[in-house]
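Appendix B. One record, verbatim.
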Amino acid sequence: MEEDLGRLKDALRRLQMGIYYLNTYLRESFEIKSTLESLEQAFRDYQEIINSTPNLDGVAEEYVREQDLLPVFKEMKARYEAIAGLMKKYDCLIEEIDSALERYRSYRYYLFPEDDAVVRFVDAVFSSRGDVTVKPVIMSENNIAEALEKMGGRKISRVTYVFPGERASEVADVFLRKFPTAGFVMEDREIKITWKQDVNVIRVDAPKEKIFELDETARRVGATVLSV
């Protein structure tokens, strides 16, 4: 058992490092995409000119010969095919890792089509779960605390208030309508919801066994479950 535990921790550390390194390398794929798009546009322009003005083909031939363009292209093509083949070879591995890590998911992002859907989601999550604590993500307006106090919230810190779960949707609605730039964090003993205005995306942190239940709840109010 002790030996297996040590091997497991070592495997997880190596898995982590591999993911980090590969992610770093793949960030360069955006530059590759941009270069391929430029390459495609240049080639389409070349084709158009040669097809419309065939007598210029000799100019192209001379340029390709003088610049040694063919051997450079062949070298690039070989590398491209090698990388493409390598990526294809490991497609199954990436899917296996994805499936394994998904079993430990403790968060999810949901994209909501409208503010009302956010309110309905909050109500479905918290209305029957006891008290929730609420605070703004950013204390952008001084009257947030005043508004929460007027709603009957019990203050437990400078910007954090407690409300009964059945009033969670009402509190969320106030944030969305009156203090949208502030965002809000709402949580109980198991589930934490973080909403920010910029893209109307909610992050939920919860035990893994709750995540898939929350996925269904989100879908029922029209939200899109994001796989990030």
